[in-house]
Amino acid sequence: MYDPLVNAPPGPHDAPEPSYWQQHTQAEFPECVDAPEEVEFAVIGAGYTGLNAARVLAENGHSVAVFEANQLAWGCSSRNAGFVMKSTGRLGLSAWAERLGADIAQDIADEHQKALQLVEETLRYCPSQCQRQNGGYLKIAHRNSAVAPLKQQYEQLKKFNQPVEWLTQNQLSGLISSPQAHAALRFTDCFTLNPILLAAATARRATAAGAQLVEHCPVTQAVSLGGKGVYLQTAKGSVRARKLLVCSNGYTSGKLLPELASRSLPVLSSIITTPPLSNEQVESIKLSPQYAIMDTRILKYYFRLLPDNRLLFGGRGAIQGKSAEKPIYAKRLLQALHQTFPQLREVNKWEYFWSGWVSVSLDDYPRVGKVKDNIYASMGYCGAGVGFTALAGQRLAEAAMEKNLPELPYYQSKLKPFPLPRFRRLGQWLYYHYGRLRD
Ligand SMILES: Cc1cc2nc3c(=O)[nH]c(=O)nc-3n(C[C@H](O)[C@H](O)[C@H](O)COP(=O)(O)OP(=O)(O)OC[C@H]3O[C@@H](n4cnc5c(N)ncnc54)[C@H](O)[C@@H]3O)c2cc1C
Q: How far is the CA of 76 from the centre of ligand 1 (A)?
């Protein structure tokens, strides 16, 4: 499988295992066009970030083309679990309050709220509302000792006026039957959806606004010409643009732009789904498709029951792209599923198994804005981007149009370079061992 730390930009037709969504969704993507030779704004990557950025630029009267190495939304935007959460990165509001004070933490909470509203706006462009499920996002204490810190997090969130509920073990036992569910924090306004339908609706909005979408067209070289704009070499010819927006996120090849090469760690997140569960099996775990669930481990597991009774279960994957599709990683997820739901021990095979690259930043939060000269980028969501990308795309477009962005950490500095970047994966491997021991 394509590995951003090893390979040149992906595609065209660089196909890893397709996700469940790709095989079960009739999505209406808009028509793509030929690559233009000249455009005002060029965008690399047609995931949620790039498509939202392109729409905002087009709505503001600019000419914009999105270059996607494979088919539209080929990256994380067609592979995720579909949890629309009010967060990004790995820092909670109380961590922000400790770092920068309660006012900034409140502003960050408001920014996340805006992101959620923007996703809701896009849902209106999809007749099925992208198969939205409204039960909320449950963060579940997977063991007794995790209950007190989770309760503390709940109390902090209340201080920031977040719509959250506390579920005791007793209350939670009505929603899920698992020995690893000791209490839960419920984010009542978060929801789940079908990620491909969201990508298709986002793409339709972008073309309706006038953006040109070009697929099977990897950008293989991007050079800043200083005041003269940017030169791009693509699989379909060269392109001159006034400005470049890099929205390839976790899929950004280390070989594309030296300015970004050492500032992100591409990490594989992987998912399995079971075959459809019988009604008895669903009753035994008590789960309804309404809920999105994540646990409190350092190396978190996340899961949801799909509307067709398949159980989707995700967590960390391999470290290197060349190992991503080895069955051992699916087996590990199946083992974790059995620990979460011993009732499902007889479900001894997975039906779908796939992975995607998320971009992890050194200090656990993303950056959106100028990289240098006429080049802008948005990356480092640390695996939480379905909600945030709607706003990240907008903010990135605003930065490229030289509008002022809110004075928040996401927008006011560049991603930090990893020290000893050649050893990022060794650090990741050590972290996985530490996490496994702690969990
Ligand atoms: C298994 C998994 C589960 C996840 N679950 C959730 C979840 O439930 N909730 C949540 O909030 N987040 C989740 N995420 C993360 C979320 O999916 C991402 O944060 C989000 O989709 C990022 O969107 P994006 O547009 O920035 O990047 P992507 O969707 O990854 O798009 C980047 C695109 O850039 C293209 N590209 C790369 N290089 C080039 C090039 N040189 N030229 C042209 N094109 C190029 C790629 O082909 C790709 O299509 C998950 C991620 C994974 C992998």
A: 3
pLDDT digits (tens, 9 = 90+) for 342-353: 999 999 999 999
Joined together, the tokens standing for residue 117 give 């509203």
Report which secondary-structure segment, H or E, holds 56.
helix 48-59
How many angstroms does the Cα of residue 103 sit away from the middle of ligand 1? 31
**Ligand 1, CB within 6 Å, residue ranges:** 9-11, 44-50, 67-70, 74-77, 79-83, 85, 218-219, 247-252, 256, 269-271, 314, 356, 358, 381, 383-387, 389
Q: 327 CA to middle of ligand 1, Å?
A: 22
Can you tell me the distance from the alpha carbon of 359 to that of 395, in angstroms, rounded to the nearest whole number?
18
| Ligand 1 atom nearest 73 alpha carbon | 49
Reference 236, options 375, 65, 58, 74; nearest CA is: 65
Mean pLDDT for the chain overall: 96
Name residue, tokens 């979408």.
213
Do 319 and 428 form a contact (C-beta atoms < 8 A)? yes
* Pocket-testing residue among 80, 214, 239, 359, ligand 1, by greatest number of atoms within 8 A of Cβ: 80
Q: Which atom of ligand 1 is nearest to the CA of 14?
A: 47
What's the rounded Cα separation, in Å, for the pair 365 and 91?
7
Cβ of 153: how many Cβ atoms within 10 Å?
18
Extract the residue ranges of the chain whose pLDDT is less than 50: none
93-100 vs 102-123: helix crossing angle, rounded to 10? 140
Across 329-352, b (16+ Cβ under 10 Å) vs e yields: bbebbbebbbebbebbeebeebeb
Place of tokens 């007749």: 127
Helices within 77-214 (DSSP H only): 93-100, 102-123, 147-159, 169-172, 195-209
Closest CA to ligand 1's atom 26:
49
DSSP string, 206-270: HHHHT-EEE-S--EEEEEE-GGG-EEEEETTEEEEEEEEEE--GGG--TTT-HHHHTS-EEEEEE
Ligand 1 mean position to 44 CA, how many Å?
A: 12
Give the atom of ligand 1 at the shortest distance from the alpha carbon of 192.
Answer: 8
What does the pLDDT read at residue 8? 87
Of ligand 1's atoms, which has the minimum distance to the CA of residue 49? 25
Ligand 1: nearest atom to the Cα of 383: 15
